[in-house]
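Take a look at this chain, tokens included, and explain the fold to me:
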Amino acid sequence: MNFFSYLNTFLEKLKSQGLFRENKKEGKLNFILNDYLGLRHRKIELDKLYKLKENLFTSSASPLLGGYSNLKESFCNFLKYLYKKEVLLFNTGYAANLGCLSSLKHINSLTIFVDKLAHASIYDGILLSQKPFFRFRHNDMDHLEYLLKTYSKNYKYLYVVTESIFSMDGDISPIKDLLILKEKYNFVLHIDEAHAFGIYGKNLLGAFEKYKESIDIITITFGKALGSFGSAILSEKSFIDFLINTARSYIYSTHISNLNVFISYLNFLYIRKNRNLHKKLFKNIVYFKRKLKDIKIKSISNNPIQPIFLKDLFKSQKDFKDILEKLKKFKVQIGLIRPPTVPKGKERFRISLRADHSKKDIDELIDILRFLKE
């Protein structure tokens, strides 16, 4: 069997298990996208673009070669003012976490503690760091303390990484308990605010905005609530300088374009002045949860991410292929999340609610869930 024959056999096995992934065309009514405030279609005035006397569409090089534009420096300074932390721009949240965590390989006598349900970008960065790491049960602070107590004596530096709002369950880390443990064990705390930045906080800095001074490292992304593209790591100057010198996803990649930074900047200013989008989003969440209750389906989240577990939806085990075939009958797009993205037994529809969904849209989704439910 040659290489490509092996690949075909591998892919056929995935198809037979209903685990085959393929790119999809965006549907008219979509409950998959993380564009929580519906900004991806917001029109940007062209005259504002033309006034920029900088190359818009590509940076053409890594930031260490091409340099930071005045626009990027301005955006970073704005974020620095809000967070009281230094800022480093990356292309994506994945690249930010990958570069940040993999760079820890340069620090001697360090170990990492990570929430079991943390994002793949976090785990991939940890694996590349080649550092010993310990997974604590999801949001279980007693288990985290047990691990800290057991292993802290073996290492000089302890590094705890988790998310504020989790991308699959939509639940929130217990930040107050984390900070109590941080005080007790003196670890470095890294919080990924990807799904909270732009939505939560007085200044829309994230779910843990009021604790930002006690959090050592923060990841934010612009491809969700800001309807744009890009990300940033925020921390003390020494750590940002450390990343500039060690983060391979920063050093060896063409940098984010000025166009994306410009759109992120404008959209962030826009949503800070126009909070009606947030009101609409949270009204949609309340409405969706109420409609779910009407058809006797559980909701465990109060955030835009709404998981509907297959075990709660169906009385008997369902084949993924059968579910996907049924979904093809509808114009509505729903994310069916399967292993290995989630553990076996935790398969779910991941519903992503947005401010630009209407009640009619949500009613249509509820009708589909009612149809699928046995």
About this structure: The domain at 51-272 is CATH 3.40.640.10 (Aspartate Aminotransferase; domain 2). The chain has two domains: 15-37+275-372, 51-272. The chain is about 40% helix and 15% strand. The chain has a mean pLDDT of 92.
